[in-house]
Amino acid sequence: MRKLFKLLTNKILITIFFFLLQVAFVAVLMLYLVSIAAWVYLVASALSLFVCLFVMGKNANPGYKLAWVVPILLVPLFGGLMYLSFGRTAKLRNRKDRKFLVETEKNTFVKYDSAIERAKDHIPHLSPSARKLSELLSHQSGYPVYNGTSVDYYPLGEDFLDALIKDLEKAQQYIFLEYFIIERGKCWNSILEILQAKVAEGVDVRLIYDDMGCLFTLPANYAKKMNAAGIKARVFNKIKPTFDIRMNNRTHRKIAVIDGNVAYTGGINLADEYINAIEKFGHWKDTAVRLEGEAAHSFAIMFLQFWLMLGREHTSVDEFLPLSKPCACPGFVQPVTSGPGKNVQIIEKGLMSIVSNADKYVYINTPYLILDNEFVTALCLAAESGVDVRITMPHIPDKKLVFTMSRSFYPVLLKSGVKIYEYLPGFVHAKSTVCDDSIAYVGTCNLDYRSFYLHYECGVFMYDVPAVADIKADYLATLEQCKQITYEEATDVTAFTKLARSVLRLFAPLM
To answer: How far apart are CA 141 and CA 267, in angstroms?
Structure first.
């Protein structure tokens, strides 16, 4: 009976049950309305037309708007409802959360003024292209650029885990962890053991994980178990079995902060495939960076803003921003975060700025390639202007439909001179960019609509730091295990594949 009760109260089963119940209700309703089908179709079409006008009137990226208008007009009976359910971006779950986050941001950045003021002194020391990028990011996000911060780059998940464990073991005041996916196994268990030991030592340990990302990897009551063990845990955007646009807005961020002086970010989640302890899609290629210095404050603030919002707390952030140890490190770093609802797409704009201002080369790693027209244009113009533009993609995909759609972008890019490579040993999950031996980005943002418009993302832009050379060297070393895709190969597909790609492109915003 206990096992039966546990099964019947399983979060996944409950969610699926109520979702299917709603689908069944809609189906029955539609069957009931068949008798007045003409009127139903007329009303639904009118709704879709109204939604199209609403979408086109929004202050949003034209590519994103067009990608929605086409499927809405293609399927007018359900298109409008589809957009209302899945297409709109929502800042947070409700007005109180939105208001609370705005207040938290204001209070945080007031206490952050000294760092922002010092950042103005750094701007003149940047190269012209880096100066443009840094001012764009500062204006859009409010996060400053720092000097005196050391950067370590990790080309694989296992390298990242080894370094993270060493820093966790040194924690004396606090540990903040925010991850999209956490799964019990070698990776998480090794971290959890340290967290429990640190709690026993009196270290303040806090954890945020995304409910959707961990839907199939953690039990429903995992946060309660963590809190009972002394690890303060909160769940971001809990899943509800509804057609709710806010269910699309996930925290896709990966953040670890130790004592306000060390921070990690990158593409790596806390699960075994990310450290190649198990194999899901061949060898897993991922990247991460470690910051030591004042720039770690930005990641502490990113975490705390969500933490305070989720718990509706009003706590000063000052105690979590200690005086950083002086570091005579060359170059500058600028952490940023982006999210839905503001229509600014900070990280996308930053990456497009890198591409548009490149002089010699731009090398990009991404697991998905589902771009709006502006990004495609930027890549093509750069390549046509003589810039060596290279994109590395997986050869073994984790999502076949998304991979098919990603490949649909190959022909237009290849025709303009962009070079595309696929990583033969397995799956590329890295989200990194390096440009002209001077600028680099490592973070959580994929090159797709979901990351640009629906998810909360984060990353760090680097200017003239030694790690830029490491990122470039790793990219070139990875190319030795890749296959270059030719234009002939990208276009030599069956008629069915071409049709499938065209259909999938219509539904790009849902991917």
So the answer is: 21
d(Cα 449, Cα 80) in Å, to the nearest integer? 19
Where is mean pLDDT largest: 55-64, 413-422, 499-508? Answer: 413-422
Q: Could you tell me which of 190, 85, 151, 471 has the C-alpha nearest to residue 334?
A: 151
DSSP string, 268-324: --BSGGGGTSS-SSSEEE--EEEEESTTHHHHHHHHHHHHHHHHT----SGGGSPPP
Residue 5 pLDDT: 45
Higher-pLDDT residue of 181 and 72 is 181
Contact 452, 431 (CB under 8 A): no
Convert the pLDDT of each residue in 451-492 to its tens digit. 998 899 999 999 999 999 999 999 999 999 999 999 999 999
Place of tokens 């002194």: 121
CA of residue 362 relative to chain centroid, distance: 20
Name the 3-class secondary structure at 256.
strand
107-111, 226-230, 504-508: range with lowest mean pLDDT: 107-111
Residues 20 and 242: their CA atoms lie apart, in Å, by 10
Q: Which of 435, 265, 252, 434 is nearest to 335 (CA)?
A: 265
Question: When comparing pLDDT for 295 and 509, which is higher?
Answer: 295
Q: Please, what is the end-to-end C-alpha distance for the chain in angstroms?
A: 40
> Cα dihedral angle (92, 93, 97, 101), rounded to 10 degrees?
-10
Give Cα 60 to chain centroid, integer Å: 19
Q: Per-domain residue ranges for the chain?
A: 2-87, 95-338, 346-510
Please report the DSSP string for 218-235 in residue order: S-TTHHHHHHHTT-EEEE
Q: What is the pLDDT of residues 28-82, one digit of tens each?
A: 666 666 566 666 667 777 877 887 887 777 776 676 677 778 777 777 766 676 6
Question: In angstroms, rounded to a whole number, what is the distance separating the alpha carbons of residues 47 and 389?
Answer: 43
- Helix H segments across 83-176? 95-111, 113-122, 128-141, 157-170
Higher-scoring residue by pLDDT: 145, 313: 145
At position 181, the amino acid (one-letter code) is I
Alpha-carbon gap, residue 59 to 80, rounded angstroms: 19
> What is the rounded distance in angstroms from the CA atom of residue 383 to the CA atom of residue 96?
46
How much is the pLDDT for 168?
98
Q: Convert 43-65 into a string of H (helix), E (strand) and C (coil).
A: HHHHHHHHHHHHHHHCCCCHHHH
DSSP at 456: B
> What percent of the residues of the chain are helix, what percent strand, and what percent coil, each to the nearest 5?
50, 20, 30
Q: Would you tell me which CATH number, out of the four given (3.20.20.10, 3.40.630.30, 2.40.160.20, 3.30.870.10), belongs to the domain 95-338?
A: 3.30.870.10
Does this chain's domain 95-338 share its CATH topology with 346-510? yes
Fold of 346-510: Endonuclease; Chain A (3.30.870)
